[in-house]
């Protein structure tokens, strides 16, 4: 990682595809230790720990569930608990880091982040319900901290920095979402909110355009193609690119 340009003291937003690395002795634990070594004791690692299954069953497609199940699911779905709710579809490394001693997790019931390092609590302190990836989310705090993005075997479709640009884009459409949360007494309740549409389907094309600017440092870690770049610059590029290239977006 140091050969790629990761520096001691870095705040690093890491997206991983562990299988792309090839065989690693110690798997995700070894990779986290290597990342900690790369950023040093003054650096902070951040990973997405999203929980997409905590969502309205009326929207489920893989698989869909019958309408007469919806109310039962809503009533029985456990409310999001940062300490207990496992991440969903993020892979082994984010889930391992989330449960690492000293790790901190943001409070969003669907798009949380976890962090490990001295800046973790500050970076994840604010994550408003109606701001999954925008200026009241950890991504904005990461920008303020001068964070960089490391795509470790992962593609641009996983790049949450682009979601920050999406949230900041002119004419961004909005949608209503729903999820289970915990109330002040620790009981689960169903809630809804409105936020900018999050759509990563064109992120590979956006990533290719971003890469063509020359702002991305590339290399190989293990067997994995790896990319390193500035989070703020990537978000700014995305906020300009999306209104021009995304169908149905109002500029």
Our estimate of the beta-strand percent is 15-25%
Q: What is the β-strand count?
A: 9
Number of helical runs?
A: 8
Shape: globular
Give the radius of gyration: 18 Å
Mean pLDDT, rounded to whole units? 95
Poorly predicted tracts of residues? none
Helices and strands, in order, run as EHEHHEEHHEHEEHEEH
**How far from one another are the termini?**
39 Å
Could you give the order of strands across the largest sheet? 3-4-2-1-5-9-8
Helix content: 25-40%
Biggest sheet: strands, sense, closure?
Answer: 7 strands, mixed
* Helix vs. strand class: alpha+beta
Task: Name the descriptors.
single chain, 251 residues, alpha+beta, seven-stranded mixed beta sheet, two-stranded antiparallel ribbon, 9 strands, 28% helix
Question: How would you characterize this protein structure?
Answer:
It contains 8 helices and 9 strands. The protein has 251 residues and is α+β, with helices and mostly antiparallel strands. A 7-stranded mixed sheet has the order 3-4-2-1-5-9-8, with helices on both faces. A two-stranded antiparallel ribbon has the order 6-7. Strand 3 and strand 4 form a beta hairpin. The termini are far apart. The model has no long low-confidence stretch (mean pLDDT 95).
Summarize the structure.
By secondary structure, this protein is α+β, with helices and mostly antiparallel strands.
Topology of this protein?
Elements: E1 11-16, H1 27-39, E2 44-48, H2 70-76, H3 92-98, E3 104-105, E4 113-116, H4 120-123, H5 138-144, E5 148-152, H6 160-167, E6 174-182, E7 188-196, H7 203-211, E8 217-221, E9 224-230, H8 231-245
Parallel strand pairs: 1-2, 1-5
Antiparallel strand pairs: 2-4, 3-4, 5-9, 6-7, 8-9
Helix pairs in contact: 1-3, 6-8
